[in-house]
Amino acid sequence: MTLMCPDCRGSNIMHSFATGDLLCADCNTVVGDRLIDSRSEWRRRRPQKTDDSNSDSSAAGSPRAENGVNLLRAKKSTSRDAKTRATEQRHGDTLDRGLEQISAMCVAMDVPRPIESAACEYYRRVEAGGLHRGKNQDAITATCVFLACRQHAVPRTFKELCALTRVPRKDIGRMFKLLKDKLGAADTAAMSPDDLMTRYCANLSLLETAQDCAILLGRMARERDTLAGKSPVSVASACIYMASHLVAQPRDARIISRVAGVSEVTIKNSYKLLYADRSLLLSSQVLAVDSAASIDNLPIP
């Protein structure tokens, strides 16, 4: 069996007894460390002083001793340089993996290119600041994408990120609270139901009139606090469910739940609140969005 360097695949390996390392003589990579010196132990005796003037040329001051000291210092410096290069290589590998993961995530979520660039820049700042140490790598990359989406007003929900990364929602939420201040992203706008409705309606193949009706319903519901305490995803889903039936483009709650990532029960419970307040929510402005709009089209919860 021949010991080979994992980097250059060379077999010119030397044992540095001073540092206890196995070093590759070609590329200075540390192949092994903490090795035990199996040689017999010896001690250097201090030469006794004599009257002989020739004894002044002791081994401590001889050129041979100085060369040995210089050799040991060179080996120690080589070992430190090799370890530094290994650390830098590991840091570079971690950075590359994180950037590749962000790119794949942005492609899967179908977000514009500027968002990917912003997310990558966030991740580089996380690495440079050492904020990644001891943290979940997937949670960091997901949070960088989430911050970039918020910055560019292209909202994505925690549930969408959880589905892509398989990271628990609480871990992404905790990382978001940590990084938004550290990265100077505290001023990013909060996600609103209006932003979600545009994307959900497009995925549901609804006409523009249904989308406009859903947005108006959402605004009226906010003014009256009809869905107070509900998440933006729940508000958007319930308003789309009501608007689609109102303008005679009905979409089942089960289909909307798949697109929005919220349960069918949540949609119907929110719709009950909207239906109970329908006489005030469905103003003439809402009904004028589509000629087919009618309160009679609404399903009874």
UniProtKB/TrEMBL annotation:
Residues 78-94 have a biased composition (Basic and acidic residues). It holds the Pfam family Zn_Ribbon_TF. One of its GO terms (cellular component) is transcription preinitiation complex. SUPFAM superfamilies: Cyclin-like (SSF47954), Zinc beta-ribbon (SSF57783). SMART domains: CYCLIN. One of its GO terms (molecular function) is TBP-class protein binding. It comes from the Eukaryota. InterPro entries: Cyclin-like_dom, Cyclin-like_sf, TFIIB, TFIIB_CS, TFIIB_cyclin, Znf_TFIIB. Residues 1-32 form the TFIIB-type domain. GO terms for biological process: transcription initiation at RNA polymerase II promoter; transcription preinitiation complex assembly. The keyword Repeat applies. Residues 41-70, 75-94 are annotated as: Disordered. Keywords: Metal-binding, Repeat, Transcription, Transcription regulation, Zinc, Zinc-finger. Belongs to the TFIIB family. This is Transcription initiation factor IIB. The lineage of its organism: Eukaryota, Fungi, Fungi incertae sedis, Zoopagomycota, Kickxellomycotina. The gene is SUA7_3.
